Type III PLP-dependent enzyme (Paracoccus mangrovi), 473 residues
Amino acid sequence: MAESRAPGPDAAAPAPAGTAEASPRPISAETVSANPAPPVPASIAPVATPLLDARLGAAAARFGTPSYVYCTDLAGERLADLRAHLGRWFAISFAVKSNPNPALLDWMRDRLDFLDISSGGELALSRQAGWDPARISFTGPAKQEPELRAAIETGLGELVLESLREAELANAIAARTGRVQPVLVRIAPARVPKGFGDQMAGRPSPFGIDVEDAAEILPRIARLPHLRIIGLHIYSGTQCLRPDAICENWRIFMQVFSDICTAQNLRPEKLIFGAGLGIPYHPGDATLDLGAIAAAIGPELDTFRADPRFVGTRLVLELGRYLIGPAGWFVTRVVSVKQSRGTRIAICDGGMNANLAASGNFGMVLRRNYLIHRIGGDEDGARPIEKQDISGPLCTSIDKLGGGVVLPRLEAGDLIAIHACGAYGPSASPLYFIGHPLPREVLMTGGQLRDITRIGEDRPHRGTDPTRTDGAR
Ligand SMILES: Cc1ncc(COP(=O)(O)O)c(C=O)c1O
């Protein structure tokens, strides 16, 4: 998980009692009400409301803690917002790595255009969620024979080739299967603008074919008889909150696509723009302005698409966290409170083991607090507002969910909610470390809550008796 660095206007907002240190703009009271579908909001940032707290509290009471709660209404709003601003140019592909829960993938099936997977395991989860393999692409720098075979045999839409080795292996598998496999070639550009939390190109990188090698490698792939190059793919940076940097990156993509397609005489069916759209994780982070992106890059996208070489080309935005990150909360319960040398520390039942990203250990350079609030607020002033640390249940000092967080005074039994946890949650966490019960996953649609826990069905969850081996609660 990348550190998001861009400061934003929200930083100045005062902290209402019972919410996080700095308050994001309040928009989504409707979202956590039952219905009807709200209008597309100008900006999307989750905020604590009594209704949200009631629902998160109900999820914790019914399913236990720690839990992830995913709100499909909010994800739906975000999708509508994406389409409203960028749908004129782009179809949307969801990166399964960001949240592979099959119930969510199922929800997405009739709403999104494509899925991108990065392993045989994600292929199986996507198929379990009912996705047609023809709408699935497959990225990943170290694909191996069994997963390639499974993907090709099942009728995968596009294989995203990241090397010549992979192309030759895929060609041999496709030959045995009697298929000609459509492929996209992943290109690593020479430059990524500043402003991305994580960079996958612009320096030595395991991902894709370096743009300077494309002229040599693409013709060799094109000669493989059981592969058909139908386009190109770039994913060079994630977690960017700056519209200017996103636009600059897409300009680089357009140049790379034009140069390669001209040199190789390609009329691509598809070009994948690795979106890089970031989300606010920390107090003070900006909310990405999709309108500013559309206004700045729209005319250039129009010109690009008017090129005869690209008139029949489908442009696709590949993204994960932007869609689902802010639509999820991590709910954990305070087990114990310690006053230690002047610092109040709330110790919770789920920490880094269940939510690596929120602990700051998922690729973050400097640990920064996520947006956090106490469910139930300050109980009408009964809880003084003070700085507290929040840690998890592990026997390591890196298991910390918050340092100096300004919250109503926490007591044992309290619930806290961490925002922006819908992406890179359980599947990106060291769930087996120290053997605590696994987090639950809960789907919230209107007022309905549904247990959609996937991971570790063989392991006890909170609410189960961990000493029982017969699976009974
Ligand atoms: C190839 C590829 N596609 C999509 C994504 C999704 O990124 P994000 O969740 O930041 O949108 C990633 C993230 O690392 C990626 O590597």
